[in-house]
Amino acid sequence: MQHLSILLAILLTIPFLQAKKPLDEQHCEVCIKTINKFAETLSADDKSSVEKIEKGFKSFCKKVKVDSKEHRLCYYVGALETSATYAIGDLSKPLAWGIPTEKICRERLFKTNPQICDLKYEKPIDINGIDLNKLKVKDLKKILTDWGETADFMEKSEYIRRINEVKDKYVKPASDTEKKDL
């Protein structure tokens, strides 16, 4: 009987002894940033009304750039007419109650649709600090399309040549001190 109580005490303390995993700052970053940006547009009166928050978020999502990470979030939450699900209540109610955005995204919306927290912003590529020959064609093409340049080539070398031709318009040259560090 004594062994059983010791075993029970050990089992009950194990969860408290386990170290918490450090919080990944990129976990739900698109959700948190988008909802914070939306919440800043609300008046104090609107922040306490679930209906006004839902209506406001739908309106906010109509203005978001199509094919952006924010647009995808709006789709997942159900704020777009084309959305397959409707989970906007999981956003509007906690927001009206004053629950922090991080908690809304990482706990409530994540339970509804884990894909919401898979959305991450892409890190910009440092053109001056990277060897373009080591990048994939997909990345080279993305650089050019992000700059608004044509990117319809057949060979990787053509993409690299085009990036080098136009990069002075879009990228600041590396300073002399940065060049020495490399």
Structural write-up:
With 182 residues, the protein is mostly helical. It has two domains: 29-118, NK-Lysin, CATH 1.10.225.10; 132-171. The chain contains nine helices and no strands. It is extended.
Features:
mainly alpha, disordered C terminus, 9 helices, extended, 0% strand, single chain, NK-Lysin, secreted, Mesencephalic astrocyte-derived neurotrophic factor homolog, 182 residues
Q: In terms of per-residue confidence, which ranges show pLDDT below 50 for 5 or more consecutive residues?
A: 15-22, 176-182
Kindly name the structural category: mainly alpha
Helix percentage: 55-70%
Q: How many beta strands in the DSSP annotation? A: 0
Give a short summary of the structure.
This protein is mostly helical and 182 residues long. It folds into two domains: 29-118, Saposin-like (NK-Lysin, Orthogonal Bundle); 132-171. It is built from nine helices and no strands.
Topology (SSEs and partners):
Layout: H1 2-17, H2 29-41, H3 50-63, H4 69-77, H5 89-96, H6 101-112, H7 137-147, H8 156-170, H9 176-181
Helix pairs in contact: 2-6, 3-5, 5-6, 7-8
